[in-house]
Amino acid sequence: MPALSRADTSLFGRWWWSVDRWTLIAIATLIGFGYVMMLAASPAVAERIGASRDMFILKQVVFLSIAGLIVVAVSLLSPRGVRRLALAGCAMALIMTAATLVIGPHIKGATRWIALPGLSVQPSEFLKPCFAVTTAWLMAEGKRPGNFPGMLITFGLFGIIAVLLKFQPDMGMLAVLTAVLLIQLFLVGLPLWLIGIFTSLIGAAGVTAYFVIEHFHRRVQGFLCFRTADVANKLDAATATDATDCYQIRRALEAFGNGGLLGTGPGEGFVKDKLPDAHADFVFAVMGEEFGFVLCLVLIGIFMFIVLRGLLRLLGEADLFVVLAATGLVSSFGLQAFVNMASTLHLIPTKGMTLPFVSYGGSSVMAVAFGMGMLLALTRRGHTAELA
Amino acid sequence: MTERRSNEPLPGNAPGPGTLARRFGAPRDAVVPRMEDVRVTAPDLARRVTMERTRGRIVIAASIFTALFAAVSVKLALATIFIPMPLRPSDQPHVAVAPKASDVATTIAPASVKAFEMPRARRAMITDRNGEVLAISLPTAAVTANPRALIDPEDAAHKLKSVLKRLDEAQVREKLSDQTKSFVYLARQISPREQMAINDLGIPGVDFERSERRRYPLGRVAAQVLGGVDVDGHGIAGAERHFETRLSEESPPLRLSLDVRVQAVVREELLAAMTEFQAIGACGIVMDVRTGEVIAMVSLPDFDLNDTRTATDDDRSNRAVGRVYEPGSTFKLQTASFALDSGIVHIWNGFDATNPIRIGRFSINDFEGKHRWLAVPEIIAYSSNIGAARMAEAAGTATQRAWMEKLGLLTRTGIELSDSALPLAPPAANWKEAATLTIGFGHGIAVTPLHVVMATGAVSNGGVLMRPTLVAVDPGAPAPTGTRIMQQTTSDTIRKLMRLVVTDGYGKPAEVPGYFVGGKTGTAEKISGHGYNKHSNVSAFMSVFPMNAPHYAVYMMLDEPHANASTHGYATAGWVSAPAAGRVIARIGPMLGLLPETDNAAAIQASLAIPMQPARPPGAAATPVPRASAPVAKTAPPVAPNRAGGSTPVTTPSVPVRAPSVVPPVATPAHDLRREAAARPVQAALVDVGR
């Protein structure tokens, strides 16, 4: 990249000197990881899906490139532009999420996707960053003098989304949205006792969901039965349980175990061949097998770096909207990464959630890029003035 | 973080006239020199307080995220380094499940296979007495699947079909699509090559289950004795079933008493005879009469244990132990044994075989009868039904039945085979005169061929009943002990009588020079429909060799043999079974370590000889046959002194014609049968052809 003079006042020049370059580098590294992992997981998956491996790789290269462009393009926006984009995106994503219930194909027990030519889009993925920015704006507006009912609208919007996601069902997405909302409420200064009540309510909702929603029930069962088997030291998942999740989790843990400290080396893993979701939700396991503990730790470090840097930089931020929006974006990003890695490592029940930038998948990568672009735009130096 | 450390109002917040300066972004430690001049509105203050609290909470949120990622890192370290999940053997890439070195046990000791290490199998091997493998379990695998873990049943079925051609693709697809199941078998007993190929398909949800496959390297050899196993490897018949617990719980090979070489000879000769005489079945047994060990047990038709699909029930049936036949004339040795051993009858006693015996509407007759008085050796050598019946009658029903019980002829033999049959005999209440007469020549009772072998072994080996066994006696172990059932001297007499059958009786075709074969023919008509069928026989030859020191019993039986030109129209035991027995003895003798004795043949033969009409020893003349038990000859017929003093084999004994005055030698007691028999000579409906 040609050196840009600080005096360069072109759009790109101003962007380069104001953007958070460390986070940008971290995101670029993640995209690099995504590229490598796609190469690792593709042979088995391409054969399983029936597509040619070249096609598979080409598709993801295109997706990753588009994701990079989205990050840069969105980060060029002013905070006001981000807000407008998010509001529009939120409305559109909401409509499309509602539409999945009507026209979406039934995949793995849920209707979350809208089939477009060339790719399937999961609108709720886009809802996530847009919703975070929208609620941030609503809350910040509500705090301003005037009678703008920000909180009321926030909860109303959340209610609608919760109902939509429950019917898909996509409890993982709902959990992340709820958690992000909770963090924003926490930051905006809601009394701790109220936060406590909300948390309890969510816990109660989770228990209810366990008993009411079969899909969710199975996921948790899968987690629990495997745990029991673990205790009994019966390592044969086939006899211990019949749940698919158990099978995947077992394979995932075998993959980690096979990888060890330094991994088997690129392309040398074989447990990955038995992981149905090796390219998507379980890509972290493939990474564990082929690249080992050290590189996995580096990956965790990158996610942590992005999250912590994003949050701590907000300490110097004076605008409530920017703080709330950036926190929401960074939290949803961090939570998504955490949920994926934790469920792959059998810390929590499996959730249908991708590892940002690393997992295969078009709409997931682009939605995450969208969110990260907005984060970068909001945290650019000297742009607070563009707000209001 | 210092770029905006400035006190100037930011341009975007351009305050209008009269509004207060906004101080967004001012760091906490920023100096605000003109504070006193600034009027801060309440909302602004509130916002500042909010921001302060928000900053504190941002730190808390950051801490929570740090904790979450730390937890993931710890779990990652555990999963990769500290407690890694072990891989299942079937997950190893491109490696079929093979036994590890530690799984290999050296199990076969005998010289024939001593250098080999056999893969450890759960089910123990079965060998013959020399260590030849009769049954062995080889490791194999079954293909299983968890339909719920499967992604694409159709695709999986198609791929599996491409490797396992024998699969029914539609059926597999149906099994894999059944979401209510979490475990289904797709194929059993696949080869290691097939297992590797399926493993290479990498279909998630498809797995392998280690299993075993029972193989019988010798195929048809001792098929019914071994019996075979079902698809789960459990014995379904024969020794596999009888020794189920032993085979599945103990790993050393089960060493049977069988000798596959002898087994092969018996089968070959039996098959040849069966083919020559177009018999519907055949059975052969070789038993060590000293230990009771069964050396060979053949039943024809048989089947290949490795390919049981075409095996019929008849093929699977073990005629040696699983079916009962009327033993016929082979049982005359038993009659002679208890009659002589009881002391009631003496070898020089004679019985009237002039006329048939009438029992109700049946009569007992002799085939090719002599129609005169017959001494005990003559009764055996010429196989006289009338004589044997009279002899049994003389000994008495109680003696006969007690003998049958003592020799185990009324219960199962105790052979270690699950399919051994129970004899058919009249219950004690019905075992009366008529039964005594017919059982005397082997009719009216049905036992398995092994019963005949066991009983004949007992009367020829010196008088000790050895229970037949299929388990080899260890060379180091003490010899098995039997039950003495008769006096040694009586057994010696029986041996001579058996030898006489082969030297002078109907058993001549079984003679093998140097082996001093002794035996007894037995041709029994089979029951069909309402009665005995003259044209369907069970022709058996029961032999023991060498008679000077009995070691092995050889039993050869043909079921429904047909006469041909070479037998001059006869399908009797002497013509069809005895030659086969002779051929077997000639072939297995050397195998069993017995060489034909030629040097002392004459002396040995002399010691085994017995005259057809032995002389009554001096002083024994007065011994009466108790009238109460049997109305037989009170005095033996006068016998001419033997020319060679009893030491030369009598081939054509000079028998003085008995004076009519001695017939009947005793005043006929009130015995209806006998009187009737004497009064009305008749057609033989109940007849043992007796040869």
Overview of the molecule:
The complex is a heterodimer of chains A (388) and B (691). With 388 residues, chain A is mostly helical. Helices cover 71% and strands 2% of the residues of chain A. Chain A contains 14 helices and two strands, in the order H-H-H-H-E-E-H-H-H-H-H-H-H-H-H-H. Chain A has a two-stranded antiparallel sheet with strand order 1-2. The radius of gyration of chain A is 21 Å and the shape is globular. Mean pLDDT of chain A is 80; it is low at 227-243. Chain B has 691 residues and is an alpha+beta fold. In chain B, 31% of the residues lie in helices and 15% in strands. Chain B is built from 20 helices and 19 strands. In chain B, strands 3, 4, 5, 6 and 7 form a five-stranded mixed sheet that branches. In chain B, helix 10 packs parallel to helix 12 (385-395). The radius of gyration of chain B is 44 Å and the shape is elongated. The chains are: A mainly alpha (388), B alpha+beta (691). The interface between A and B is large, with 72 and 58 residues.
